Amino acid sequence: MSCNILLVDDQRDILRLLHTTLDTLKIPELKIFESPSGEEALLESARNKIDLLITDYKLPGMNGVELMHKIRARQPEAKVVLITGDL
């Protein structure tokens, strides 16, 4: 059974770090998608079923909580992890 993870962050380095970390798990069924903004993440979620959303809280445009609500409106079973670099 495949598991689709959507990573959302406007900082390219963070996306790369998250993606690389998940790749080290070496799970062949894991599909990882990346988006630099909430708007692009919504487009990605329209194209693919999302099992896990990992998103930055602070995004340009809509924030991570707004994104979570919009994706869950389409895919209520999606799990969500909110991250932030702010203290």
Could you walk me through the main structural features you see in this protein, from its secondary elements to its overall organization?
The chain has 87 residues and is of the alpha/beta class. The protein is built from 3 helices and 4 strands; from the N terminus they run E-H-E-H-E-H-E. It has helices at residues 12-23, 38-47, 64-74, and strands at 3-8, 30-35, 52-56, 79-83. It has a 4-stranded parallel sheet with strand order 2-1-3-4, sandwiched between helices. Helix 2 (38-47) runs parallel beside helix 3. The protein is globular, with a radius of gyration of 12 Å. The chain starts with a strand and ends with a strand. The model has no long low-confidence stretch (mean pLDDT 96).
